[in-house]
Amino acid sequence: MRDVPHFGSDFVWGVSTASYQIEGAVDEDGRGRSIWDEFSHTAGRTLNGDTGDVACDHLHRYREDVALMADLGVDAYRFSIAWPRIQPDGVAVEPRGLDFYDRLVDTLLEHGIEPSATLFHWDSPLALEADGGWENRAITDRFAEYARIVGERLSDRVTRWFTLNETVVFTLLGHGNGIHAPGKELGFGAMQVAWHQLLAHGKAVQALRSTGATRVGPANNHTQVRPIDDSQETRDAAHLFDLVYNRAFLDPILLGTWPLAGIVDPVAQDGDLEIISQPIDFLGVNSYNPQYIAAAPAGSAIPFDQVTPEGLEYNDFGWPIIPDGFTQMLTGLRETYGDALPPILITENGGAFNEAPGADGHVHDQRRIDYTAAHLAALKDAIDAGVDVRGYFHWSFMDNFEWAEGYSQRFGLTWVDYATQERLPKDSFHWYRDLITAQKGTR
Ligand code: BGC
């Protein structure tokens, strides 16, 4: 295992979660239904029919959870706000929803932890689906209004705002192939949804700034694209995948351009790109592993093939563990965007390692420690190569509802016993705490 190098005194150490994955209490305080409530309650959509109805019961246990984060020693906590708690039907405001996040933010501040809030981590109000949801441009104004409402309440205390989480995954899995909520299978037609999310991002940046927010950016997912061989066909497929997965979600924001022009052209209006390319203060980057791409099989409707080569090391989800892909993803961003690339915060990185408590009552998740140490070393390599990275938020603070995989995949530093809701810090929790202590020792 490589030693974790020092990241400097200003580097931010954090953990991340998301509302639907941890909160539970889906019927409380006037919360409306989200697309994930509907989806997870539809037969066959999630493994074992798991839902987020209870999840980690965080809505009731947030004080205990924040105390545990304080014990972990993190500087910052990235959580997401459930839109249907704030506007249950997508329009009317529910004060009890705002009150919850108000209490959460104050509790974090009492413990010296910087609240870092994501406005949208995939749980849009179900009511908005009646009008087409994210296929309908009207949602971008609804979203801006939601951003303004939340910002007016919390911008005085939330130190970092993330607009939308992983627009690429919400687009491709939620609207392209239907693996995630809302389960639409629009193929490349989903890029209209991408456009609306980009526009919603730009409008939300404006709305948040109007409430006094000073540090705002998106939380994108980016991956290094690796063609599986050197043939022209494969390289063309990999290039197209890179455009669809990475650049379509970043060129509009950083360069004010649409990289799929002539390939997929969403319906847009004059001025959209100016709104989308609002100046941002940082780029949140979620990243887990590189993607290996092959040429599409004959007759495939999709012009590339995502493959997982044999003989690599994998996590329990089957994702390959390739730390230098993390370095190359970051140096690639720098090469592509140059000085247009703002400072980066790693807003998610981690792995599904499903070790359970052993006979001694502890969770010995050495594989998570190894993964994280290797990715932090790889991150430092990128910084040393000139990429400006200011912080690292581990995914995740605790085990949680892993979307279509239900509760089968565990990404947490903290074990959650879903029957009792007991929290048990894993070996990786203690390791991360020692790491942060050592890093802070240099401050
Ligand atoms: C998402 C998280 C998810 C994690 C692991 C990211 O795509 O933002 O919500 O749990 O990856 O799959």
Relevant CATH superfamily: Glycosidases
Major sheet characteristics: 8 strands, parallel, barrel
Q: How many structural domains?
A: 1
CA-CA gap between termini:
25 Å
The radius of gyration over CA amounts to 20 Å
Structural class by helix and strand composition: alpha/beta
The distinct bound ligands, ions and cofactors come out as:
beta-D-glucopyranose
Commentary on this structure:
- This protein is an alpha/beta fold and 443 residues long.
- It contains 14 helices and 13 strands.
- An 8-stranded parallel beta barrel has the order 1-2-3-4-5-7-10-11, surrounded by 4 helices. A 3-stranded mixed β-sheet has the order 6-8-9, covered by helices on one side.
- β12 and β13 form a beta hairpin.
- It is globular and about 55 Å long.
- The model has no long low-confidence stretch (mean pLDDT 98).
- Beta-D-glucopyranose binds next to loops.
Give the key terms:
single chain, 443 residues, alpha/beta, TIM Barrel, eight-stranded parallel barrel, three-stranded mixed β-sheet, 14 helices, 13 strands, globular, binds beta-D-glucopyranose
Task: Write a concise synopsis of the structure shown.
The protein is α/β, with parallel strands linked by helices. Helices cover 37% and strands 14% of the residues.
Helix and strand arrangement:
Layout: E1 12-16, H1 19-22, H2 35-40, H3 58-72, E2 76-80, H4 83-86, H5 95-110, E3 114-120, H6 138-154, E4 160-165, H7 167-176, H8 191-210, E5 216-221, E6 225-227, H9 232-245, H10 251-254, H11 272-276, E7 283-286, E8 291-294, E9 305-307, H12 323-337, E10 344-348, H13 366-384, E11 389-395, E12 414-417, E13 422-425, H14 427-440
Parallel strand pairs: 1-2, 1-11, 2-3, 3-4, 4-5, 5-7, 6-8, 7-10, 10-11
Antiparallel strand pairs: 8-9, 12-13
Helix pairs in contact: 3-5, 6-8, 7-8, 12-13
This protein binds beta-D-glucopyranose.
Beta-D-glucopyranose is lined by residues 18, 21, 165-166, 169, 221, 286, 348, 395, 402, 411.
